[in-house]
């Protein structure tokens, strides 16, 4: 392995913004979101909400894959855990939606901790395969519990926007506010973790596991922690996603969602948290692009159904082959 | 008694299919240290080719043979023209460990989408060459048919042939040597890259055969092999990922666990059993029950 090169990669990341400046940046992004949100129509708002949700889910993949070097193919299942918890918490327990989303984060995190204890501490393909198994078996497992509502699933309704925002305040704007705010707070939290002691330890572990263990780092425990954190973030993203489609069912979390998130993470650079917004944008754009291609050139039903998957997979392969360390890295290489 | 005999027999025949899939994963894992998630795509693609030829020629056997051959070609081509360039290209940066696996995932999606383009997403079926009606045992019809027997026979013959290939021929020796220690194998004059491509080809054949044996008892769909991939992976983990014997033994354990759970407890328990077994093995003996060497932890 080319260690010199690795050291250089490490150096890019060492340009760490101070915590106060990072907080200011996030507040600025939030303010820009608020500003734009007031000036666009409902369609763009709902797409914006989806971008924020996907960005958050991609951030959870980056936290896991980019920083602990583990691969998860089952983040769709972890999102589903959060989504079901959020829906059950509002419907059956009667929690207000905001607390339901917190519960979704927490329970998905605990689920990740339990699953991670069994699997994430092992190095090798175990986590990837086990999470794949989880994602594939999710629909049948979910159908075994009557409380989860089978194929139809259960409703998740966060209700109308509060009255004090006025009559003009649309439901979509409300969704956008919730998604953007939740994503910003969570990604801010993740980026703080990644620039803390834990972030350095994660990077050390990823770049050179042997050296990290010699420095007294308990690799297994940290990997489990990374997976649990990632699962919690994915759970929140799942809760937000089903809020946008106002109900949770197994079909909302297909295996292809996991692949899309992985694509989003790899395309924007799997250890580059700054790219998540772009990743979310790409994931929202791909079905739209596919739809416009189909409406222009036509094609069979199979073509229509398979085209988004084709685009996502092709993008994933191209990204791995041409910019495996993210586009930012490519720019950096050219400068030298 | 009938229920017990049925459960044993169906365990054997479904275990045989899982074993083929598991073998195809283990073969690739041994030589490249990559779990080839695209195997589900390769297997389903070759099964579609087998399906097409079965329909055109009217003979299941022609379909089976062409699927096995197509599997070898697809597997070989993927290694030579897809995986090898990726291994050569992605050599640095933190992504180096996951890039090949991510590439196989992209390939899986790509193959499934292309199948959707060509054959669509409707469920197809392949007619079995022998009856799929259960045998009559002590006056009651059991859920084990001549077709299940045929699956068991074909898979067993394949595994015997594979064992002979690996243990008795020079090619088998080269395959084992390059998997065990590529450096030393290369020094002894084995063309490791070529042997690896051969391993991928054999794995592709095994996957194609698994698909052709699986589909007549089920349906053909672009995602039909995802389940088989998961079962193959679980079986491979039980067997320790490294040994072909372990892969077969693991597949049989999985087959028995699933069939006994479904026939004695509830028919819904297929995935729960497989997943539970996977977690149990990883908790208790993450190196697998039949791992050939202890030093292969990472």
* Major sheet summary line of chain B: 2 strands, antiparallel
Q: Any idea what the radius of gyration of chain A is?
A: 20 Å
Number of strands of chain B: 2
Biggest chain contact: A-B, 60 and 59 residues
Helix/strand class of chain A: mainly alpha
Return the domain count of chain A: 1
The coarse silhouette of chain A is: globular
| β-strand amount of chain B | under 5%
- Strand adjacency order, main sheet of chain B: 1-2
Order of adjacent strands in the largest pleated sheet of chain A: 1-2
Rg from Cα of chain B: 19 Å
Q: Can you characterise this structure?
A:
The complex is a heterodimer of chains A (336) and B (298). With 336 residues, chain A is an all-alpha fold. Chain A has one domain. In chain A, 75% of the residues lie in helices and 1% in strands. In chain A, strands 1-2 form a two-stranded antiparallel sheet. The radius of gyration of chain A is 20 Å and the shape is globular. Chain B has one domain (2-132, 143-233). Chain B has a two-stranded antiparallel ribbon with strand order 1-2. In chain B, β1 and β2 (140-141) form a beta hairpin. Chains A and B meet through α1, α5, α6, α11 and α13 of A and α3, α4, α9 and α11 of B.
Name its key features.
heterodimer; A: 336 residues; mainly alpha; two-stranded antiparallel ribbon; 75% helix; globular; disordered N terminus; B: 298 residues; 72% helix; disordered C terminus
């Amino acid at each position: 392995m080319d260690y010199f090169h690795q050291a250089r990669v490490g150096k890019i990341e060492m340009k760490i913004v101070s915590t106060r400046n990072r907080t200011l940046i996030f507040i600025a992004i939030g303010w820009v979101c608020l500003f734009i949100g007031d000036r666009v129509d409902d369609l763009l708002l709902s797409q914006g909400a989806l971008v924020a949700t996907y960005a958050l889910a991609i951030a959870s993949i980056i936290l896991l894959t980019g920083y602990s070097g583990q691969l998860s193919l089952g983040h769709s299942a972890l999102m589903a855990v959060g989504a079901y918890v959020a829906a059950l918490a509002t419907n059956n327990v009667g929690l207000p939606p905001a607390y339901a989303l917190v519960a979704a984060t927490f329970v998905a995190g605990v689920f990740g901790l339990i699953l991670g204890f069994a699997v994430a501490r092992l190095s090798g393909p175990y986590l990837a395969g086990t999470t794949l198994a989880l994602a594939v078996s999710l629909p049948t497992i979910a159908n075994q519990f009557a409380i989860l509502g089978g194929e139809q699933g259960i409703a998740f309704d966060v209700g109308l926007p509060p009255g004090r925002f006025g009559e003009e305040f649309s439901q979509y704007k409300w969704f956008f506010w919730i998604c953007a705010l939740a994503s910003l707070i969570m990604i801010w939290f993740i980026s703080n973790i990644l620039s803390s002691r834990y972030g350095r330890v994660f990077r050390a572990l990823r770049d050179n596991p042997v050296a990290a263990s010699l420095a007294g780092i308990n690799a297994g425990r940290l990997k489990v922690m990374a997976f649990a954190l990632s699962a919690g973030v994915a759970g929140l993203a799942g809760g937000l996603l089903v809020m946008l489609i106002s109900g949770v069912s197994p079909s909302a979390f297909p295996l292809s969602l996991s692949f899309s998130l992985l694509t989003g993470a790899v395309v924007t650079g799997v250890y580059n948290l700054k790219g998540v917004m772009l990743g979310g944008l790409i994931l929202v754009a791909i079905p739209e692009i596919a739809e416009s291609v189909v409406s222009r050139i036509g094609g069979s039903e199979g073509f229509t159904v398979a085209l988004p998957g084709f685009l996502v997979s092709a993008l994933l392969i191209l990204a791995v082959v041409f910019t495996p360390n993210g586009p930012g890295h490519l720019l950096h290489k050219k400068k030298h | 008694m009938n229920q017990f005999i049925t459960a044993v027999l169906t365990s054997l025949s479904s275990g045989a299919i899982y074993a083929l899939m598991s073998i195809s994963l283990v073969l690739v894992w041994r030589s490249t240290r990559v779990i080839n998630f695209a195997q589900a795509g390769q297997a389903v693609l070759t099964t579609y080719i087998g399906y097409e030829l079965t329909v055109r020629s009217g003979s299941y056997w022609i379909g089976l043979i062409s699927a096995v051959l197509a599997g070898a070609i697809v597997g070989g081509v993927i290694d030579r023209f897809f995986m090898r360039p990726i291994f050569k290209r992605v050599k640095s940066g933190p992504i180096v460990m996951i890039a090949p696996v991510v590439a196989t995932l992209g390939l899986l999606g790509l193959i499934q989408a292309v199948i959707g383009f060509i054959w669509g997403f409707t469920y197809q079926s392949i007619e079995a060459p022998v009856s799929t009606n259960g045998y009559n045992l002590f006056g009651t019809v059991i859920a084990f048919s001549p077709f299940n027997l045929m699956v068991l026979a074909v898979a067993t013959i394949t595994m015997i042939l594979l064992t002979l290939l690996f243990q008795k021929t020079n090619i088998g020796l080269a395959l084992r040597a390059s998997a065990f220690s590529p450096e030393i194998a290369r020094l002894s004059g084995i063309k490791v890259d070529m042997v690896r491509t051969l391993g991928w080809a054999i794995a592709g054949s095994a996957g194609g055969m698994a698909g052709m044996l699986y589909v007549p008892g089920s349906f053909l769909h672009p995602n039909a092999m995802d389940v088989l991939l998961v079962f193959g992976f679980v079986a491979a983990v039980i067997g320790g990922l490294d040994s072909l014997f372990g892969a077969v033994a693991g597949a049989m354990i999985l087959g028995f666990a699933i069939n006994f759970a479904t026939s004695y407890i509830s028919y819904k328990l297929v995935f729960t059993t497989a997943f539970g077994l996977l977690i149990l093995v990883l908790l208790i003996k993450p190196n697998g029950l039949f791992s050939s060497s202890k030093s292969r932890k990472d």
